[in-house]
Amino acid sequence: MTKDAQFALRRVIEKYTKSTRFALICNHVNKIIPALQSRCTRFRFAPLDAIHVTERLEHVIKAEGLDVEDRGLAAVVRLSNGDMRRALNILQSTHMASQQITEEAIYLCTGNPLPKDIEQISYWLLNEQYADSFKRIYEMKTRKGLALVDIVREVTMFVFKIKMPSAVRVQLLNDLADIELSFGCNDKLQLGSVIASFTRARSA
């Protein structure tokens, strides 16, 4: 909802506040203008547990008669991050693009890197020389249309799963956080920074 639309809604709320109650739902409260926030009582809800998202999705899948693989369902739950609305949007979008909802179809539809791609990228970052790693990752990124911000986010989560000294992990995560905060620069420069961070971690 644009700011102009929110200001228009504020006037509607003021006019009908005696007879009507309005419920606004959002993921980012900072996108709601202060004039609306001041007229609301704020309730914060934590993300849903994976088991609850799964149960609800299974109900929807059965009711709609969708063809969803188990790995596909797990992918929807993972990408939703506890947001039921996002989970349903992913499910609907993927169904519109593919009659059979598989893990690969979901990742392709949402534009997120496949887990196997992240494992491959992580292998290059941890084992290949700088130039070779840059060439292979950039080629995969271009060929599959991946966004660097998504690659960095997934690689960051992968760092938590692999064994390395705590001090090295902390420094690597700190470097990746700095890179993620500075998105908007040249992609090649950003990718070079990611690879340099891993190269430095390997030599530590």
TrEMBL record:
Q: Which PANTHER family match?
A: REPLICATION FACTOR C / DNA POLYMERASE III GAMMA-TAU SUBUNIT, REPLICATION FACTOR C SUBUNIT 5
**Does the record carry Magnesium as a key word?**
no
Q: Which UniProt keywords apply?
A: ATP-binding, DNA replication, Nucleotide-binding, Nucleus
User: Which SUPFAM superfamilies does this entry report, sorted A to Z?
Assistant: P-loop containing nucleoside triphosphate hydrolases, post-AAA+ oligomerization domain-like
Leader peptide range in chain numbering: none
- A Pfam family assignment: Rep_fac_C
Tell me what this protein is called. Answer: Replication factor C subunit 3
InterPro entries for the chain: DNA_pol3_clamp-load_cplx_C, DNA_Rep/Repair_Clamp_Loader, P-loop_NTPase, Rep_factorC_C, RFC_lid
Family that this chain belongs to: Belongs to the activator 1 small subunits family.
A Gene Ontology BP annotation from the UniProt entry: DNA-templated DNA replication
Q: GO: which molecular function terms?
A: ATP binding; DNA binding; DNA clamp loader activity
Name where it's found: Nucleus
Replication factor C C-terminal domain: residues covered: 113-197
What are its GO cellular component terms?
DNA replication factor C complex; nucleus
The protein's superkingdom reads Eukaryota
Keyword ATP-binding present in the record's keywords: the answer is: yes
